[in-house]
Amino acid sequence: MTFATLGLIEPLLRSLETLGYQTPTPVQAQAIPAVLAGRDLMAAAQTGTGKTAGFALPLLQLLAMEGPKVTANSVRALILVPTRELAEQVHEAVRQYAENLPLRTYAVYGGVSINPQMMKLRSGVDLLVATPGRLLDLFRQNALKFNQLQTLVLDEADRMLDLGFSEELANIYRALPSRRQTLLFSATFSDDIRLLAGQMLNDPLTIEVSPRNVAANTVKQWIVTVDKKRKPELFVHLMRKGKWKQVLVFAKTRNGVDALVDKLQGLGINADGIHGDKPQATRQRALDRFKASEVQILVATDVAARGLDIEDLPLVVNFDLPIVAEDYIHRIGRTGRAGSTGEAISLVCADEVNLLSAIETLTRQTLKRQNEPDFEPEHRVPDTDASGQVVKKPKKPKKPKASGGGGGKRNLGRWVDSGEVAPAEPSIKPVRKVPVFNTGPRKRKP
Ligand code: AMP
Predict the structure, then answer these.
(1) Ligand 1 pocket at CB < 6 A
(2) CA distances from 328 to 306, 321, 356, 362 (A)
(3) What is the reported pLDDT for 307?
(4) Which of 122, 172, 210, 306 has the fewest C-beta atoms lying within 10 Å of its C-beta?
(5) CA–centroid distance, residue 51 to ligand 1 (Å)
(6) Which CATH number fits domain 219-393: 3.40.30.10, 3.40.640.10, 3.40.50.300, 1.20.1260.10?
(7) What digits encode the pLDDT tens for the residues 218-270?
(8) pTM higher than 0.85, yes or no?
(9) How far is CA 291 from CA 93, 144, 249, in A?
């Protein structure tokens, strides 16, 4: 199968040739013809599957081939994304695909001045990438009209709900024309997502290309157990021992990010951090410098790092385990991308045993434990396995016991077709219930 046989027009094929895309990925093979045929989509696909091109290519084709010329302050296609970084990243991909088409594309998000965005929107844009909050601000200030809108894409829909954007989504939804095509992409299909889909989609085609909740098998995963207070020390020790060159590190909180960056910088290590409290320009600069290998260690919260596409990242370290088990899959998905191999190491303390158990259940594997001499924890991390059971109650050990061993490892790599494996349901439910379209608590800046 080629992109030409999927029905894409020549200007897009030329862009793909420039980018070196030869074969459509499974999500592209299914989404492109469906979107061109005008169908609504409900697609379970995470970053790394090629989903951006899966919706952007046919969308650009429809914009180029059909519909009226865009008028002042109007937008013909809207892609909603949860974070500013993702808005930039998706827009950059769109810009490259649209290189040979006479279309205007743009991205708007918060954390930067609204005035240049209002100016830019005056002449109208064919395709707008936006975060929900800033989009509503622009709409309320009459900088944007939706009367010409023909397509809406909700990208990373589950993360938008996680971040408390359900009210914004409801308000946007009310402002949109009812006759439109809607494409919903989500890494997972929770009940909330299904509810959202029920409200927004019309007879959608369901696509599930990457079995949900299954971690990439190109990523070697292991954990080191350690006492909480010794995590920074262990991190530095492992870094020196492994001669780590480029590492993306996940910490749970903004303070956690800052504390680790301070500690590393204090030791003369080239580290930087990104989280929701930092100005957008600072976040983008840190990310760009990390991508350019000018920063060795980038420490991030989940929100700041969600969906980022960093080529050839060899290593991800979970300094803290994620509160929501599914985030583990997103985190380790930053490495081992597009078939390359990667490594994901988690530093786990006794407090995190339930989080560990939830991750193992979700990914259906017992993560291999590797003890680090001199760092064996005083507070032992109880044994866990992929059944979701904490095997033993914590007790003071005489000798730390190695366990695990990859029992039940049935994880699949990315870009695999649907139906190969039935997803596992976590027995420990992730703590993530934001009712759709209500005014639930906002967690915009972890
Ligand atoms: P995404 O899942 O959309 O974030 O895409 C992940 C990465 O795969 C991006 O770097 C894309 O440029 C790349 N990519 C997407 N589709 C293809 C393809 N058909 N062939 C090669 N690379 C691709």
Answers:
(1) 21, 23-25, 28, 47-53, 309, 338
(2) 11, 7, 10, 9
(3) 61
(4) 122
(5) 7
(6) 3.40.50.300
(7) 788 999 999 999 999 999 999 999 999 899 999 999 999 999 999 999 999 99
(8) no
(9) 16, 33, 14
